[in-house]
Amino acid sequence: MQIAADKVVHIHYTLKTDEGTVVDSSEGNDPLGYVHGNGNIIPGLEKALDGRSQGEKFQVSIPPEEGYGPRDDGLLQAVPKSAFEGLGELKPGMQFQAQTDQGPRLVTIAAVATDSVTVDGNHPLAGQTLNFDIEVTAVRDASKAELEEGAIDPANGAG
78 lies in which domain range? Predict the structure, then answer.
């Protein structure tokens, strides 16, 4: 069975930067499962998986435009340090959930000054090419409930 819209797909993956640093991997864990064609994974990876079958292994590089987008310096914002009271010592790289006009957003501390904290609303992988090693472990038809939810039923297994 080939990967297409409304199929449940399970993959093992390793994600690396252009420098070869492993950013994320399913190694040692269950495969990642999702309903194909529902926007559950980044667009470039979904496109690279189209038409693939169980057992296929491949590598793919996803440009920022098809991953987490280009970096947007407009998402850097200085916030009064008082907004972080009671959170202990603030350091660059710490992440917090912020409420924005567009809903909750993960922000990363980029810099800490005497009276302010600069937060970055970009996804940590924005602007980066994403290099994946992929193994398709299962492909099956999605159930009616999975199609309605747009997510897989863990009780339905990996194939």
Answer: 73-120
